[in-house]
């Protein structure tokens, strides 16, 4: 197996280039991302719903669809306003979405500023920990919203910001997601 790691001898760009090539672009849901993430147009309710379907890679079900309609849709004007602003006040954002689960909240943040804020899920969490030599059981993925948000804002965002350069954020997500899936399927791999 060609096991390329991000390390002092392999820069982040090389890691991303290698692992993003192994990303599953044939997913039935992948086209939803590119169809709806358009930076130059405001989001519609349909855009938001289909992007959440892309995120879950499956239908959302009644409960999750209802939560999106109840907790995300009311802030569509804010989302669209912030999409076109130079910067985003994270305190205001987090207050508006305080009742939204961490992974969904960080996803909305990514939708607003897709080149600034990375995607975050269990695969990305696993990849980050493995890259940083942090031993973890696959079941150690944080379940509490505050723990997930702390990880996202204090560890993941600074790590990616420090290493991103000109690499598109989507490509970084593809690499981390693919790498995290490999670790998840092969938990005995060692650093």
What report would you give on this structure?
With 191 residues, this protein is an all-alpha fold. It is built from ten helices and no strands. Helix 2 (30-36) runs antiparallel to helix 3 (45-56).
Instruction: Output mean pLDDT.
Output: 85
**Percentage of residues in strands:** under 5%
Global geometry: globular
Helix content: 55-70%
User: How many alpha or pi helices?
Assistant: 10
The CA-CA distance between the termini, in Å, is: 14 Å
Sheet with the most strands, sense and barrel status: none
Sequence of secondary-structure elements = HHHHHHHHHH
Radius of gyration: 17 Å
Spans of at least 5 consecutive residues with low confidence: none
Helix/strand-derived category reads: mainly alpha
Number of strands: 0
